[in-house]
Design brief:
The protein is an alpha/beta fold and 265 residues long. 29% of the residues lie in helices and 26% in strands. The chain has two domains: 191 residues, 3-Layer(aba) Sandwich (Rossmann fold), CATH 3.40.50.10780; 47 residues, no CATH class. The strands form two sheets. Strands 3-2-1-4-7-8-9 form a seven-stranded mixed sheet, with helices on both faces. Strands 6-5-10-12-11 form a five-stranded antiparallel sheet. One of its GO terms (molecular function) is metal ion binding.
């Protein structure tokens, strides 16, 4: 069994403020370590379920947060960014049996995590087919495009609820809950225990029910906090500017959407 893990930091247990997620700040090392430990737990659960190969994309900021030394020896780690439009799912392809999302967070425009954002904090929100899109959804559709089942997601409770609405068979582990500018968090060791057990359980099941269906067509909307960003990006091929801060793109091919987000976010 070959497993892909995409990992972020704003959805791990405890992370609450931006300075905790940014390299060079006092508490960054603690939360980078928690990100590592939650990924390690997912790897251990996958191995107990029979995984032979695990590929992990460190998908937060610099892409250089996870301590590879703490992971199992069959785990390969993708550090930094190649520039591929798959972004947080870089190197995912149809040879994988499942994808797992660790430390993911609510979308820009949602009030369920004080660190809610989508791809770039300059964006007020991204909408796909008139619904607010999270980083999870954007990359889940890449998995769907490649016909890779989504096994599990860990992160904040708000995002977990959205995932269940998309496909109730996807296992979710809510390690935190956002309230205003605060978070209510599971004990970090309990979070890891639940992730390990959850991954082991879900990978032992029939994952054919964990695939999601791609829409037949797409309308991408990107709303920027500053109007100058929308003005500049309206010149991307196929884009129209719909108001002072918003651009839009229509396509029947999801790869057009993936590339647009890659260059416009």
């Amino acid at each position: 069994m070959k497993i892909f893990i995409s990992a972020d930091i704003e959805g791990v247990s405890g992370s609450t403020a931006w300075d905790e997620t940014e390299r060079g700040n006092e508490l960054y090392d603690y939360f980078a370590n928690q990100m590592t430990l939650e990924v390690k737990a997912a790897c251990e659960g996958a191995n107990e379920a029979g995984a032979k190969e695990i590929v992990i994309k460190d998908a937060h900021s610099s892409g250089r947060n996870i301590d590879h030394r703490k992971l199992p020896k069959n785990a390969k780690l993708i550090r930094s960014w190649a520039g591929h439009p798959f972004s947080m799912a870089e190197e995912l392809d149809d040879t994988f049996d499942a994808i797992i999302f660790i430390g993911y967070h609510s979308a820009a425009g949602r009030d369920t995590n004080p660190l809610s954002h989508t791809m770039n904090t300059s964006l007020d929100c991204i909408k796909l087919n008139n619904q607010i899109a999270s980083e999870f959804l954007l990359h889940a559709y890449i998995a769907a495009y490649l016909d890779v089942p989504i096994a599990l997601l860990s992160g904040d409770a708000g995002l977990c609820e959205e995932v269940k609405e998309l496909n109730e068979n996807i296992k979710t582990i809510a390690v935190k809950e956002g309230k205003g500018n605060s978070t209510i968090n599971l004990h970090p060791e309990l979070a890891c225990d639940l992730i390990k057990q959850g991954v082991k359980e879900i990978l032992s099941k029939d994952l054919s029910y964990n695939r999601i269906e791609l829409p037949k067509s797409f309308i991408l909307e990107m709303r920027y906090r500053e109007h100058k960003d929308a003005y500049k990006r309206q010149f991307y091929p196929g884009v129209i500017k719909t108001d002072e801060n918003t651009i839009s793109l229509k396509s029947n091919d999801y790869m057009d959407i993936v590339k647009a987000v890659h260059f416009l976010a």
